[in-house]
Write a structure and sequence with these properties.
By secondary structure, the protein is an alpha/beta fold. It has one domain (12-308): TIM Barrel (Alpha-Beta Barrel). The chain contains twelve helices and eight strands. The protein has an eight-stranded parallel beta sheet with strand order 6-5-4-3-2-1-8-7. It is globular, with a radius of gyration of 19 Å.
């Protein structure tokens, strides 16, 4: 066979984007643009999933109080473009009494059946996933809704590399998101087996202080807010916390992964999954993330114009 006749599978980065329920209106405009003008975007990247949870979801974690889009509309949009939906069920404080929550079970029933036709024939079905913390909830969903795949949540704050490897070896997880402070542990990352690298999903744009000792406490506070135990989330005490999230600050973070590093370091090492945070940051900042990570520089103005000039979308 001639070399020109051979189809060589090129490695591709899978970006996991925030705001499944939070930014429905944005994605309703962006996804048609992404698939109709692929020339605007890097050919080495795809959308691996979009993740999130409704604002009042008690199984939710990581962020609370965001996301009011209609779940059925969300499901139909992602099915149209064959994109995996991930429900962010990373609450760390769930007990048996919470497993029977009506709304969360309805979400599972709706998204587990994604892609099925009325005839019972499944065509181009894309599996949906669950981002999860609680072992209790994991066992419950695996038994009751077995079609989902599972992602071990970064809210576990796994900063020890041996513990991270142990998490990778757990067969119930398809992906594991380590704490961003493991992002640059290149010697240990290089030594991972390829199947472990394929399960690793890096959080690329975290702005949290690299030395923050309260990260786990922050996530636990969010879990309490989701359960209605507290009204207000944990208040960060780091020096730059009062500035809020700034992408320019995130780029200075020792754990930040740049688009150049993805192309020239992580992908050649065998890694392909990259998570962009931002469920609570607003659609205008989400657009900036997409422009930076996925859009060719010469076409960024085209993407901005298409998004800004859409009369149905108000960025915030």
């Amino acid at each position: 066979m001639k070399e020109t006749d051979m189809k060589i599978k090129q490695p591709r980065a899978q970006f996991h984007l925030p705001g499944l329920f939070e930014f429905y209106d944005f994605y309703a405009v962006f996804l048609p643009l992404f698939f109709s003008h692929r020339e605007y975007f890097y050919d080495w990247c795809d959308i691996g999933s979009i993740y999130g949870a409704p604002g009042q979801c008690i199984w939710g974690g990581g962020r609370a109080g965001y996301g009011d889009a209609d779940p059925l509309q969300v499901k139909r949009l992602l099915e149209k473009y064959h994109i995996s939906a991930r429900l962010t069920f990373s609450n760390s404080l769930l007990t048996e009494e919470h497993l029977s929550d009506h709304d969360c079970n309805l979400l599972c029933a709706l998204f587990e059946n994604s892609g099925e036709q009325e005839t019972g024939v499944v065509e181009n079905k894309v599996r949906n996933g669950i981002i999860i913390y609680s072992a209790l909830l994991l066992s419950y969903i695996r038994e009751k809704y077995p079609s989902f795949y599972f992602v071990s949540s970064t809210t576990k704050v796994i900063t020890n590399f041996d513990k991270f490897k142990h998490e990778l070896d757990r067969p119930e997880f398809s992906y594991v998101v380590p704490d961003f402070r493991l992002n640059k542990r290149f010697t240990e990352l290089e030594d991972l087996r390829q199947e472990e690298k394929e399960k690793t999903e890096f959080l690329v744009n975290e702005c949290c202080s690299f030395g923050c000792p309260d990260r786990k406490a922050c996530y636990e506070a969010v879990s309490r807010v989701a359960l209605g135990i507290e009204e207000h989330p944990h208040m960060c005490v780091s020096n730059d916390a009062n500035e809020g999230y700034k992408f320019s600050n995130a780029m200075k973070n020792p754990g930040f992964i740049s688009v150049e590093a993805i192309q020239n370091t992580y992908m050649p090492m065998g890694f392909s999954n990259f998570k962009i945070e931002g469920r609570s940051l607003g659609s205008a900042l989400l657009l900036e993330f997409i422009l930076y990570y996925m859009t060719k520089p010469e076409y960024q103005i085209n993407v901005r114009e298409e998004i800004y000039l859409d009369n149905e979308l108000d960025l915030f």
